[in-house]
Write a structure and sequence with these properties.
InterPro entries: C2_dom (IPR000008), C2_domain_sf (IPR035892), CEP120-like (IPR039893), DUF3668 (IPR022136). This is Centrosomal protein of 120 kDa. With about 220 residues, the protein is mainly beta. The chain has three helices and twelve strands; from the N terminus they run βββββαββββααβββ. Helices cover about 10% and strands about 40% of the residues.
Length: about 220
């Protein structure tokens, strides 16, 4: 049985920022998150005392799979690494474990989680993380099937039959606020073009708080 579009969910983990980290100018920080064998990662950020990750990581699954993962207590594990940009070597700094059973479809206030097994023993490093279940809007859009438009009468094609298709280009009529496609004597119909942005991934990172977050998604097997 194919799951309904409304049954598709996203587990969205927002890795926002850190605090109480040591400054390491020659290194970067990265957080890798693993759930059900699928791993996602934030972009590398400066290794400052207050790193700004500002990234959303998301996994797709249906409600039946979610129920099963909750019964099995499948964890979401966030691993923090210090990255050497020159050699690409990674140092394991510490980790965070999130309990999927506590995740709700209602957005919760992000929490500060201390790094477990923290390599920086003199620092109480923490990362601010938010977790929420969201309806997979991409699945809802993919599930929509547009009706095929009925064929138009031949009079339109008769007007355009002698034209080279390459010569038919949109021309902006600024004073009227529309685009004209084809010669003026042939343009007799008005249409509305609607564009729907249903989903986005790997958006350019915005470090400033309150701006657009990076979004990464992966399908759960």
């Amino acid at each position: 049985m194919v799951p309904r579009a409304a049954d598709r969910l996203l587990i969205v983990v927002s890795v926002l920022e850190g605090r109480y980290f040591p400054k390491r100018p020659k290194y970067m920080l990265i957080v890798e998150a693993k759930f059900d064998g699928e791993q996602l990662a934030t972009d590398p950020v400066e290794h400052t005392d207050q790193p700004e990750f500002a990234t959303e990581l998301a996994w797709e699954l249906d409600r039946k799979a979610l129920h099963q993962h909750r019964l099995q207590r499948t964890p979401i594990k966030l691993q923090c690494f210090a990255l050497d940009p020159v050699s690409s070597a990674k140092e394991n700094i510490g980790y965070i474990v999130l309990d999927l059973r506590a995740v709700q479809e209602k957005k919760q206030t992000p929490k500060w989680y201390p790094l477990l097994s923290n390599k920086y023993t003199k620092f109480k490093s923490e990362i601010q993380v938010g977790v929420v279940l969201e309806t997979d809007t991409k699945a809802l859009v993919d599930g929509f099937k547009a009706k095929e438009a009925p064929p138009r009468e031949g009079r339109v094609s008769a007007f355009l039959s002698g034209l080279d298709p390459k010569s038919i280009i949109p021309v902006l009529i600024e004073e009227e606020g529309y685009h004209q496609i084809g010669p003026a004597e042939c343009c007799r119909d008005y249409f509305v073009l609607s564009v729907t942005i249903s989903f986005a991934t790997q958006l350019e990172q915005r470090k400033s708080r309150g701006q657009q977050l990076n979004i990464v998604t992966v399908s759960s097997r």
